[in-house]
Each structure stands twice: as C-alpha cells, then as structure tokens.
Amino acid sequence: MNKKYLAIAILAVGLLGGAGIKAVNNRGVKDVRLATVARENLEESVRLEGVVAPKNMYNLYTEVPLVVDEVVVNLGQEVKAGDVLVKFSQGSVESVENDIRGLELDLRNAKLELDDLESGSMKLDLDSRKLETERMENQMKSLRRKELVVKNELANLTEEAEVKMRLFSAEGISSIEANDVITRKARKEMEYEDIKTEVIILQERMSLSVMGYERLKRELAIQKNMIESRIEKYQLSLNQMHSRFITELKAPVDGVVSALEVENGTPVTPSKRVMTIVTHDDFVVKADVPASIVETLRVGMDADIVSRDNYEDKIYSGKVDKIARVIKTVDRGNYEDKVVEVELSLDSAEGLKPGSPVDIDILGNRMEMITVVDAFSVLEENGRNYVYTIEEGRARKQEVSIGVKTFSKYQVLDLQEGTEIVVNPFAIRNGDKTRVMR
C-alpha cells in the first residue's frame, strides 16, 4: 500500500478508536469529538514512492534481417561506445549480400529500360508523328495562302462577269466574250471549293495526328515515370542496405545493458529490438501521483529523493521536471487507482541504479499562520469539500473552500479560527443528533 494512504489509514483508525466517533447510544444520539480550526505555519510537502529510471535509453535494432551467431555481452554488463555486443551468422550475412546484388541487377535493368524507352521504337514513332504534324502544319499554311489568292481571283472574276453581262445586255460585246468570262468564273469557283475541301480534310488529319502524338507522348511519359520511380526505389533500398548492413552490433554510447532480447541463433528483423543500453549517471525519478493531489504540484518544485540501497539512506536533491496531462488507471489488485505520472530531475545521480525504489519528498511553499484543519476532518464528494459542525446538538454539513494541501493538513479559506468541526465526517450524516465528548 502507498505509504501516504497507510499513514492516513492508521491515523484515522486511531482517532476512531480513541478520540473519534463512538457507537450510537440507545437514544439514537451519536457521540462525536471535535477539533478546532487553528492558525499554524504550514509547509507544503508531498511524500511519494518512486523508481529510478534512465533518462536516455538506446533501443538497438538491426536494419536488415539477420541471425544472431553470438551474444557477446550479458544483461547488466557495462559497455563502452564501440564495444561489440552481438555477432551475426555468416549465412545470414551472405543472404543480405545476395539481396544487395539482386538490387544492383534490378537497378541496372531498369536503367537499360529507360535508355531503350528514350531511344527505342516508341521514341522514334513519337518523333515521326511530330515531324508529320509539323509537315501538315506547313501544308495548311500553304493551302491558306492559296485559298486567299483564289478567293480574291474569284471576287475579281465575279465583278468582271457582272460588268460584261451588262455590256452583253446592251449589245456592247459578243456572246463569245460574255460566255468566256462566265466560264472562267465557274472554273475559279470549282477551284475555290476544292481548296476549302482540302483545308477541311487536312484539318481533320492534323487533329488525328495531334491526338495520336499527344496520346503516345503521355504513354511514353507514364512509362518513363514508372521506370524512373523503380530506379529511385532500387537506388534508395541499395543505399540503405549498404549504409545499414552490419556484421556486428556495436554499442553507440557508454552505458549498461538494461534489456537483452536475443540469444545465440535468434533471427532478428528490423522491427525486433535486440537490446537496450542506458547511460551511466543519467537518471530521472518517476512516480505515480494520486490524481486527487496532483494539483498541489507544479514544475520546478524542489524535492528530496531518498535511496535506501544496502540499508543506508542517501538523500539526493531534485526538482519536479514534468507532470503528465493524462490521468491513467493503475490496477492495484483489489481496486483501481487514478494516478498522474510525474518525472523529477536529479542534481546528481551518482550511486543510483535504474529500477531502484526511492522515497520522494516534494517541498512546497511555507505558509505563515494560516487557518488549517486535519486532512481527515474534510469530506470530499464530487470534487467538493465538506466539514461537519454542530449546531443545537445536530450535525450540520457545510461546504468549505480548500487552499494548500499536505497529506495531514488542509488550509481552509472560509472557516474562522476557533470554529469547531467534527473530527471524522464519515461516520455521521447531515442532521444527526449528536453529543460532544470532551
């Protein structure tokens, strides 16, 4: 059981047994004892149990699948940066080397595909379509110029025919001259219509050619992007395997082997942790603080951390460094506890070991001559605080505002010094008849 709760429970039992609530008498009146609200100096202090934890942990993995040939170190062993920790089997090393050669072959083939795509039949067909489109564009320009000339010639012949027809009607020219100009006009109209038809046909051919060219261009671009993506993928994988491929696993820092997950013959994958290294004298202290009192803590508060290894108390200085924002539920066996994780930094961690239990005293502000009551005299319900006073022989439940809290004392903000309250509010109810025991 948490030392805090154990202490409070013992104190409460003592008060109940000796100075607290007695059994109800035969007339239904409950015997109670009272405590007086007094002014005292109060220093905020929270006592907790914690555990030493490494500040920096190095979880070691392999970047490629391998098989452990020999584990060189033991759990708890001290190592230096660069020390060999694990050796891998020659067979698994050769397997990785084969994978590298396979990737190199895939990369070379993909590059050949790209070269063929950029200079092969599809590229030639694309260039041919482009040239054909350009040729038709030039032909269209020539037809447009010819169309314009013929159109002007037709306009001139039409005007000439109209003039000569008027002369012919006035018998100013012969029918032969009139028929000649009419015939030339008709031929020019036919020529003009033929050119317009050629323009339409050429436009359709150009449209089809452009569509074919764009389609082939897109197909070529898609294939090129796919091949380039494969090349990039092969190159990246190859670079990673070259840079990450190892035949031995070495320590990245000086430290201690705190976890060992493999043994000789164990296959390992990139997702399987091989071991964990924690650094020397680089520890923090972690504690689960009851959610009901965590609001009394703040980052930067001083703390004394007491280690009792080898039955010798040693006190370390520290500070509250982190207070989690999330409340977690801890299974205590027969009940669930709501706690918040708090992390404390240490001025020095010399002599501490990861996993060692410690006691923590978090020191708060000293409050001079404030009104306080014993913590067990306050009833907490649904986030509100209550005490019982006695009025005309009956218990009266009264809500109070609480300021500073310690494990044994609460500051009350709205009770006057000298106010008498029931020692233990859990054994009576509002309106109960009472008899004060002096």
Describe this structure in words.
The protein is an alpha+beta fold and 438 residues long. The chain has 3 domains: 3-56 and 279-436, Efflux pump adaptor protein, beta barrel domain (Elongation Factor Tu (Ef-tu), domain 3), CATH 2.40.30; 60-88 and 249-277, Beta Barrel (OB fold (Dihydrolipoamide Acetyltransferase, E2P)); 102-243, Helix Hairpins (Orthogonal Bundle). Helices cover 38% and strands 33% of the residues. The protein has 4 helices and 24 strands. The chain has a 6-stranded antiparallel barrel. Strands 4-11-9-6 form a 4-stranded antiparallel sheet, with no helix packed on it. A 4-stranded antiparallel sheet has the order 8-7-5-10, with helices on one face. Mean pLDDT is 82; it is low at 1-24.
Radius of gyration: 48 Å
Overall average pLDDT: 82
Per the principal axes of the C-alpha atoms, what is the gross shape?
elongated
Uncertain residue segments:
1-24
Q: State the oligomer.
A: single chain
Strand content: 25-35%
The overall number of domains is 3
CATH superfamily of the largest domain: Efflux pump adaptor protein, beta barrel domain
**Name given to the CATH architecture of the largest domain:** Beta Barrel
Question: Which CATH class of the largest domain?
Answer: Mainly Beta
Instruction: Summarize the helix and strand pattern as letters.
Output: HEEEEEEEHHHEEEEEEEEEEEEEEEEE
Number-wise, the strands total 24
Spatial strand sequence of the major β-sheet: 3-12-16-14-13-17
**What is the count of helical runs?**
4
Largest sheet features? 6 strands, antiparallel, barrel
Q: Give the structural class.
A: alpha+beta
Helix content: 25-40%
CATH topology call of the largest domain = Elongation Factor Tu (Ef-tu), domain 3
| Distance between the ends | 34 Å
